[in-house]
Amino acid sequence: MKSKLTALVDGPLQLVSDKQILFKDGVEVAAGQKVLLCTCGQSGTKPFCDFTHVETDFSSAREIEEEILQEYPGREITVYFNRSICSGAANCVQGLPSVFKSGDGSHWIYPDNGTVEEIVDRVHACPSGALAYSLGEEVIVGEATEEKITIVKDGPYNVEAVVLTDNPNSTNCSHSKYALCRCGFSRNKPFCDYSHAENSWKEGDGAPATAEAAPAQAPGDGPVIADNKPAMVNLTKGEEKYFCTCGRSAGQPFCDGSHAGTTFVPHAFTADADGNAALCACKASSNFPYCDGSHAPIPDSQVGQVGALSSKTVSGAPVAKPTAEEPIVAFIHQLASEGLSKLGHHGPMTAMGVPRHLLPNWDDLQIMTAQMATKPLLEDQAVGTQLVIGPQAKKPLVLDIPLFVSDMSFGSLSEEAKVALARGAELAGTGICSGEGGMLPEEQAANSRYFYELASAMFGYSEEAVAKVQAFHFKGGQGAKTGTGGHLPGAKNTGKISQVRGIPEGEPAVSPPTFKDLVTVADFRRFGDRVREITGGIPIGFKLSANHIEQDIQFALDAGADYIILDGRGGGTGAAPEIFRDHISVPTIPALARARRYLDEQRASGRVTLIITGGLRTPVDFVKAMALGADGVALSNSALQAIGCVAARICNTNNCPVGIATQKPELRQRLDVGEAALRLQRFLGASVELMQVMARACGHSSLSAFANVDLATWKHDMARLSGVMFSGLGE
């Protein structure tokens, strides 16, 4: 059900939603399926309406004649501003003060003082939709996709992706992001126009709530939730009782007359048996007076508040909804009712990696810097940054820095994104990996340190193509998706994508779970030796996901690996089944520690290069990874963010708003390849410079000198996961 907001004439906002979308201070504000939100600013039960607006003769009339759209043209971008719907959040002024100059009067926006990317970011950050921009003829406004209403302290309701019915709003602002007046002073109701600040309105204004205060909904519109668990009573067969339906009775669950003055009436029933019975206390049961489990999703904070209308008027059982105790009940119902007919063979799909807060935290590792026993280096002392891939290969690959761009396929990413990444990496003196979708010629031509990835489908593979590359690796798996195949529908296998993959246009591109003709160690060694022969001896590697870590590394060593790329849990992907992304692979930190220990035990360290990837984002992450044993780090998400990704996490929808993870021409044109390449160069350069700062602080003249002794942790679990020293006295 799509949530809806209606601005009632001379009254509150009516919110109808089957989801919990109301938030304050980052915490859900419990609300029923149909609630009234105060707009007069005087309710004693904020954010809910208590009908004080009736007593104060509140008017929702609009006082301004028309909205004025101000235009601020620049050389590359034009910015538009609608003053009458600006809530004064100041995200623009505080986030980009060079462009948005507070206090400059009517002319306060200077587009030429910032980059296009910076301005676009601020437009999308505007919570009121008062800002827009154009790069040509089309005016683009900030958009929201996830339904949410945020109650701003002493300010408006910030609304995202909720339909505003009978919307009087002009096309001058976003229809999916807007701010609605909560103080009652706005001259452009229902929208906020910053009057709350001009009138020094505080949300504490208004009469305090009392037991006699009017309900947060109109009488008869919704009952009070007496409790979020059933009322246990002892009934006598044949005894007539009157069940409270309004929720206001002090003698729950039975009526005490408190419904007087409302449209509620008690529910008369006769007990059909002796003994204990569970009667409804949430007043949402479809089986009055008995409990039917409708209370399950109601949090403690909503008890005593007005809830949804009783589902008694709805035929059948209540709809299953996730709760804290039973978070997957809705998923079970979906599988039971539909099987996989709508979800697909692999179940629900998702994008990107496991969220960082669900993984061991890199911030729980502390870096041990030098001072006396070991000395830090002076600021002007050089720190080496070189990384050699496959030092014992006939033609080892030398990178200027220990960071490079990880495997991301053309098809998952746009051509513009792939070329920008290749150019940026080249400018930084490092390499880029092809991804499993084949080698995009324009990408390979833009980078002289090119890694070719061969996956199970062998898309686009030819000896002619591999002769042009500087490193080659087999793909065993990736952190978010291993042990299963992939399927690109024929409708998406078009144009250059089909050419690069070597599949006729319109035919599905199917990746099997594993190589069909490469099975044994000998098979892989034979294939790798052929690549060495063709290329004059480039390094041969294996990309492995962190599952059976030691066994898979041994397989790679036996097959003659010169380098290993290990992808831990947390590594991202353009699209993966949730059942795989959320439930497979060892997290990156313990996976890296185990891999380095095993290579040491096999005396392979120093001759086999170990690259780690999967959830690393920042320079300090890279330092800690190298101290844990990585020779280098392959970057995916951070590289994408460097060229413009805004982390919308909708990569699997083909609707990437910045033109990176999409094949839609109108979206792809948003990515400036040249500027994106420079952004990646700057990110990589700045990251390495910060890594050098930390190396000097630890007394190292090369980034490769970082070691396990440079780390400690004050968390026992992290010490066990990583193998680094525990900071305390205990083991």
What does this structure look like?
With about 725 residues, the protein is α/β, with parallel strands linked by helices. It folds into three domains: about 1-220, no CATH class; about 225-315, no CATH class; about 360-720, Aldolase class I (TIM Barrel). The protein has 18 helices and 34 strands. An eight-stranded parallel β-sheet has the order 22-32-31-29-28-25-24-23. The protein has a five-stranded mixed β-sheet with strand order 4-3-10-11-13, with no helix packed on it. The protein is globular, with a radius of gyration of 31 Å. The two termini are about 55 Å apart.
CATH superfamily label of the largest domain: Aldolase class I
Give the CATH architecture of the largest domain. Alpha-Beta Barrel
Main sheet?
8 strands, parallel
Number of strands: 34
